[in-house]
């Protein structure tokens, strides 16, 4: 029988049970024992779902309290000194939380570790902090405890751990460079590998045969020294005498395929969704006695799988390799919602086209059955149902719109250019009269339970339109008056009407659909519910103009119109897979262009089009970058270039590395860009300094992903570091990101301190 397994399963629970338990624990509403009980229940439930799908091996170690890389970092004992970890003592769960978010119910609050995007996904991992003389040790037992949990429930387990080279590549420190060709990191292997061997030996002693070691950096452009390191690293790990499945995903291995030849591992997993051309090449690099695991079910999107095509792909390798060929999703199912059956209100036609994590395991089981028992009647009926659903989607009249097609055909004639920045900024300053170090926020203000209840009741029809609009206007006025009192220079309306920066716009655009429980984890307890782009995108009516115009009517200070950019809407949605992503992005850009022009016509003179996912969309291989960057920049400029010189265009990006794409960021030609820099201590400004970035920039001085309130002196020092790199007259003062997830007391204290910091800077 065909061996099936899973690379990883979502952690949060179908109703976000983990999120609620985490936040209750952080707020002191439940004990740590109660929190851990929720974790055990979720793990048991998810293992049962996977066992019921017939998986031969169940992943263990994919569960995480905050982030799987942070889990591994704490297991290795790699805790930065500022967290006060006692030598030789186990790393406590609260220490893990303080590393992730800056504070926990116990322990001294301190600066959280840096957070950045997990490859080209919208998941964020906590960056390991590397120290040259770090003493690694097994400092937590959670992995072994969870193996015992699963075994006690009768499951045959496959522990999942990050590979040593991937973990080092993702880490950074004062002596090292994150993700760069830094061979100095490789010197840490001497101290690191003995702990890996110890972990593998402990796993073997628990009666485990297979361990999945994730090395997704094999999808990147690796320097020769890193490629060569694999042989020695895995020769060392082989001494633990446990079967290793080396897992890669997100990309074709390309030249890194050569790393696999002679590598002492018992199996290799590859992603055939993202790298379909690599099958024969990778198969040729393996010995006949090595397992080849094929990822044929898309772990990053929610459309049903063409199982006939998948079966065709796998049929010849299956005939050649027999039981040495395994089947799996392409990557961890962390990136898709848990269960489609939780969607009770989703349109029936559309629902028939979809597959969430639980259903993807059913597809995997059906694919295996089509190989093992192809003549079975139930198998044939299930395969036919899959074909019918795919055919219905292809033939649906809901997907294509003639008016959108006509507008796309004419889009090439639309301008993407504005006058040079030096000319524009003079017009903008004459109109806005801003002081030096102007202050603003990124857009959203705290969303209280009361606001969420109002939105919920209105959507359910329990609150009328007039009452809802009155309540939202009251909240907008409260936010405006607060900002005036604090002394901010460019205000926002606070976005009380928005549930999410992407979902809100998708609800007002044609071609989108939405779920009730289609949640995926973004970071920590932060979950998002990506909309589904199933058809051509158009804007039936203005989306933000009325709210922004009302806010502007309340104050003489400029109020920013707030939009999410086309690339970010694309990246943070589940996107149709029947046309090129750039085509969908241009449809979004045209819709947003209309919104930008309408905001300007309504008297809004500052308009922010956020693109935090701009770098996230970058292909993993450098050779593919320019094509993406060309159309991504074009889409942004298509959105923004229809306005007058005096209208100031802002954009926002967060938790990204900018060095290698700074030319394209400059080519976007936003008048002001705001970025995250507080966790990275202004390090990200190096790219803007070296490039001599010509436009205005707001380096974030307030880490909104931590509940800690920054001190005025801390923010002054950060801005002085920024002023040493960039001209003072080009600098803005702002938080790292929106304030939606923060509470009002900490927000008020932080913004008061931020404005005081800006005023202090003006007189230094």
From TrEMBL:
<keyword id="KW-0479">Metal-binding</keyword>
<feature type="binding site">
    <location>
        <begin position="526"/>
        <end position="527"/>
    </location>
    <ligand>
        <name>5-methyltetrahydropteroyltri-L-glutamate</name>
    </ligand>
</feature>
<feature type="binding site">
    <location>
        <begin position="442"/>
        <end position="444"/>
    </location>
    <ligand>
        <name>L-homocysteine</name>
    </ligand>
</feature>
<dbReference type="InterPro" id="IPR006276">
    <property type="entry name" value="Cobalamin-indep_Met_synthase"/>
</dbReference>
<feature type="binding site">
    <location>
        <position position="616"/>
    </location>
    <ligand>
        <name>5-methyltetrahydropteroyltri-L-glutamate</name>
    </ligand>
</feature>
<feature type="binding site">
    <location>
        <position position="676"/>
    </location>
    <ligand>
        <name>Zn(2+) 1</name>
    </ligand>
</feature>
<feature type="binding site">
    <location>
        <position position="652"/>
    </location>
    <ligand>
        <name>Zn(2+)</name>
    </ligand>
</feature>
<feature type="binding site">
    <location>
        <begin position="442"/>
        <end position="444"/>
    </location>
    <ligand>
        <name>L-methionine</name>
    </ligand>
</feature>
<feature type="binding site">
    <location>
        <position position="19"/>
    </location>
    <ligand>
        <name>5-methyltetrahydropteroyltri-L-glutamate</name>
    </ligand>
</feature>
<dbReference type="InterPro" id="IPR002629">
    <property type="entry name" value="Met_Synth_C/arc"/>
</dbReference>
<dbReference type="InterPro" id="IPR038071">
    <property type="entry name" value="UROD/MetE-like_sf"/>
</dbReference>
<feature type="binding site">
    <location>
        <position position="572"/>
    </location>
    <ligand>
        <name>5-methyltetrahydropteroyltri-L-glutamate</name>
    </ligand>
</feature>
<dbReference type="Pfam" id="PF08267">
    <property type="entry name" value="Meth_synt_1"/>
</dbReference>
<keyword id="KW-0677">Repeat</keyword>
<keyword id="KW-0862">Zinc</keyword>
<feature type="binding site">
    <location>
        <begin position="16"/>
        <end position="19"/>
    </location>
    <ligand>
        <name>5-methyltetrahydropteroyltri-L-glutamate</name>
    </ligand>
</feature>
<feature type="binding site">
    <location>
        <position position="652"/>
    </location>
    <ligand>
        <name>Zn(2+) 1</name>
    </ligand>
</feature>
<dbReference type="InterPro" id="IPR013215">
    <property type="entry name" value="Cbl-indep_Met_Synth_N"/>
</dbReference>
<protein>
    <recommendedName>
        <fullName>5-methyltetrahydropteroyltriglutamate--homocysteine methyltransferase</fullName>
        <ecNumber>2.1.1.14</ecNumber>
    </recommendedName>
</protein>
<feature type="domain" description="Cobalamin-independent methionine synthase MetE N-terminal">
    <location>
        <begin position="4"/>
        <end position="316"/>
    </location>
</feature>
<dbReference type="GO" id="GO:0003871">
    <property type="term" value="F:5-methyltetrahydropteroyltriglutamate-homocysteine S-methyltransferase activity"/>
</dbReference>
<feature type="binding site">
    <location>
        <position position="610"/>
    </location>
    <ligand>
        <name>L-methionine</name>
    </ligand>
</feature>
<feature type="binding site">
    <location>
        <position position="122"/>
    </location>
    <ligand>
        <name>5-methyltetrahydropteroyltri-L-glutamate</name>
    </ligand>
</feature>
<keyword id="KW-0028">Amino-acid biosynthesis</keyword>
<comment type="pathway">
    <text>Amino-acid biosynthesis; L-methionine biosynthesis via de novo pathway; L-methionine from L-homocysteine (MetE route): step 1/1.</text>
</comment>
<dbReference type="GO" id="GO:0009086">
    <property type="term" value="P:methionine biosynthetic process"/>
</dbReference>
<feature type="binding site">
    <location>
        <position position="737"/>
    </location>
    <ligand>
        <name>Zn(2+)</name>
    </ligand>
</feature>
<dbReference type="GO" id="GO:0008270">
    <property type="term" value="F:zinc ion binding"/>
</dbReference>
<feature type="binding site">
    <location>
        <position position="676"/>
    </location>
    <ligand>
        <name>Zn(2+)</name>
    </ligand>
</feature>
<keyword id="KW-0489">Methyltransferase</keyword>
<keyword id="KW-0808">Transferase</keyword>
<feature type="binding site">
    <location>
        <position position="495"/>
    </location>
    <ligand>
        <name>L-methionine</name>
    </ligand>
</feature>
<dbReference type="GO" id="GO:0032259">
    <property type="term" value="P:methylation"/>
</dbReference>
<comment type="similarity">
    <text>Belongs to the vitamin-B12 independent methionine synthase family.</text>
</comment>
<comment type="function">
    <text>Catalyzes the transfer of a methyl group from 5-methyltetrahydrofolate to homocysteine resulting in methionine formation.</text>
</comment>
<keyword id="KW-0486">Methionine biosynthesis</keyword>
<feature type="binding site">
    <location>
        <position position="610"/>
    </location>
    <ligand>
        <name>L-homocysteine</name>
    </ligand>
</feature>
<feature type="domain" description="Cobalamin-independent methionine synthase MetE C-terminal/archaeal">
    <location>
        <begin position="438"/>
        <end position="759"/>
    </location>
</feature>
<feature type="binding site">
    <location>
        <position position="737"/>
    </location>
    <ligand>
        <name>Zn(2+) 1</name>
    </ligand>
</feature>
<feature type="binding site">
    <location>
        <position position="654"/>
    </location>
    <ligand>
        <name>Zn(2+) 1</name>
    </ligand>
</feature>
<feature type="binding site">
    <location>
        <position position="654"/>
    </location>
    <ligand>
        <name>Zn(2+)</name>
    </ligand>
</feature>
<feature type="binding site">
    <location>
        <position position="495"/>
    </location>
    <ligand>
        <name>L-homocysteine</name>
    </ligand>
</feature>
């Amino acid at each position: 029988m065909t061996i099936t397994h899973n690379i990883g399963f979502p952690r949060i629970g179908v109703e976000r049970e983990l999120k609620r338990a985490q936040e209750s624990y952080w707020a002191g509403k439940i004990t740590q024992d109660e929190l851990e009980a929720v974790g055990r229940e979720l793990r048991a439930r998810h293992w049962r779902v996977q066992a019921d799908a017939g998986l031969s091996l169940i992943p263990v170690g994919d569960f995480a309290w905050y982030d799987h890389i942070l889990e591994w970092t704490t297991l290795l004992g790699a805790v930065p000194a500022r967290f006060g970890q006692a030598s030789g003592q186990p790393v406590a769960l609260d220490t893990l939380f303080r590393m992730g978010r800056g504070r926990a119910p116990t322990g001294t609050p301190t600066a959280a570790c840096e957070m950045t995007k997990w490859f080209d996904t919208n998941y964020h991992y906590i960056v390991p902090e590397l120290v040259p003389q770090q003493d690694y040790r097994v400092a937590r037992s959670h992995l072994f405890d969870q193996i015992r949990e699963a075994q006690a429930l009768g499951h045959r387990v496959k522990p999942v751990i990050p590979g040593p080279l991937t973990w080092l590549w993702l880490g950074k420190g004062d002596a090292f460079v994150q993700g760069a060709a830094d061979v100095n990191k490789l010197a840490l292997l001497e101290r690191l590998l003995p702990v890996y061997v110890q972990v593998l030996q402990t796993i073997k002693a628990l009666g485990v045969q297979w361990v999945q070691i994730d090395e997704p950096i094999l999808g990147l452009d690796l320097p020769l020294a890193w490629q060569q390191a694999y042989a020695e690293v895995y020769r060392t790990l082989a001494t633990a005498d446990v079967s290793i499945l080396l897992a890669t995903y997100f990309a074709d291995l390309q030249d890194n395929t050569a790393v696999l030849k002679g590598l002492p591992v018992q199996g290799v997993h590859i992603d055939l969704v993202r790298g379909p051309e690599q099958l024969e090449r990778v198969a040729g690099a393996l010995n006949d006695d090595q397992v080849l695991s094929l990822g044929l079910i898309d772990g990053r999107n929610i459309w049903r799988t063409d199982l006939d095509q998948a079966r065709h792909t796998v049929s010849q390798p299956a005939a050649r390799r027999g039981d040495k060929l395994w089947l799996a999703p392409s990557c961890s199912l962390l990136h898709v919602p848990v269960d489609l059956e939780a969607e009770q209100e989703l349109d029936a036609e559309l629902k028939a086209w979809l597959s969430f994590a639980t259903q993807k395991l059913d597809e995997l089981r059906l694919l295996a059955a089509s190989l093992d028992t192809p003549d079975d009647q139930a198998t044939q009926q299930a395969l036919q149902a899959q074909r019918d659903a795919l055919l219905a989607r292809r033939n649906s009249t809901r997907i294509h719109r003639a008016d959108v097609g006509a507008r796309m055909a004419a889009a090439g004639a639309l301008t993407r250019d504005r006058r040079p920045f030096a000319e524009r900024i003079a017009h903008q300053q004459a109109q806005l009269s801003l002081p030096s170090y102007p202050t603003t926020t990124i857009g959203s203000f705290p969303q209280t339970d009361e606001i969420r209840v109002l939105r919920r009741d209105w959507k359910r029809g329990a609150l009328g339109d007039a009452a809802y609009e009155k309540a939202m206007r009251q909240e907008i006025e409260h936010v405006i008056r607060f900002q005036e009192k604090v002394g901010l220079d460019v205000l926002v309306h606070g976005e009380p009407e928005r549930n999410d920066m992407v979902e809100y716009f998708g609800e007002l655009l044609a071609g989108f659909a939405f779920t009730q429980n289609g949640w995926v984890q973004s970071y920590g307890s932060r979950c998002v519910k990506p909309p589904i782009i199933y058809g051509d995108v158009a804007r039936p009516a203005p989306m933000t103009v009325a709210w922004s115009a009302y806010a502007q009517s309340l104050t003489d200070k400029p109020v920013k119109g707030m939009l999410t950019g086309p690339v970010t809407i694309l990246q943070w949605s589940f996107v149709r897979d029947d046309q090129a992503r750039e085509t969908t992005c241009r449809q979004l850009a045209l819709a947003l262009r209309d919104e930008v022009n309408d905001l300007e016509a309504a008297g809004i003179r500052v308009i922010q089009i956020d693109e935090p996912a701009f770098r996230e969309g970058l292909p993993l291989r450098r050779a593919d970058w320019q094509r993406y960057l060309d159309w991504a920049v074009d889409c942004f400029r298509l959105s923004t270039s229809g306005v007058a010189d005096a209208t100031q265009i802002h954009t926002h990006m967060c938790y990204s590395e900018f060095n290698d794409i700074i030319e394209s960021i400059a080519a976007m030609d936003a008048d002001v860009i705001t970025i995250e820099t507080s966790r990275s201590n202004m390090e990200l400004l190096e790219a803007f300094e070296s490039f001599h970035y010509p436009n205005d920039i707001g380096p974030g001085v307030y880490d909104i992903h931590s509940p800690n309130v920054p001190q005025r002196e801390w923010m002054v020092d950060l801005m002085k570091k920024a002023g040493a790199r960039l001209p003072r007259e080009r600098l803005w003062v702002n938080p790292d990101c929106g304030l939606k997830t923060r509470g009002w007391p900490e927000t008020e204290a932080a913004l008061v301190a931020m404005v005081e910091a800006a005023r202090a800077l003006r007189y230094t």
